[in-house]
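Subject: sequence -> structure tokens, single chain

Hey, anyone have a minute? Need the predicted structure for the following. Not urgent.
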Amino acid sequence: MSLLFGILAASLSLALGAALGLLAGYYGGWVDQILSRAFEIILMIPAFFLLVMVVAIFGNNINFEVLVVGITIWPANARIMRASVLSLKERQFVRATVATGASRTRVIFHHILPNAVQPVIVNSNLQIGQAILFEAGMSFLGLSDPNIISWGQMVNSGAFHLLNAWWLAFFPGIAIAILILSFNLIGDGIGRVYGPTSIVAKKIARSEVPA
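Reply:
Had a minute. Here:
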């Protein structure tokens, strides 16, 4: 459940962040101003305390918790996407595509989105670990869905037996730490693959070198 929670919350963050960041970066103007202010407002909201409020209002429901975590962490992806789009739409290969009369839809989905979304995917992978930590903290405090077994809930149960059965809390805690570390390492690896030396970046760079 900890793994599923992290993947679902990060996927929601990826979808929202990529879509709204793309709109803000490509259209600019008042659209960018409104969405950028929305990004900043949501980033100021402490996600953990919002989770506690949702549990107090709607009860211990895992679906609401996934929704809240996904909604509170997506602005980071949106800001990364916006910055990537602002950079890409000024590149020569995009300007050349616009000059040939290509539709706005083709420019966005065939040229900007495939190149702009890569750093967002990397960040979303890191957010899986962040979401897992949120879920573990909620479970440890007894605020998660009691009908679902998770590692945070196991740590909570084992905390009362640390003196005579320390392993009950130790191994679930180690599992959480290893899982979060694994996703951080995977995110770092993806970042290296799709970094400045990636094949895609090289192709773009070569396309802008004057003959």
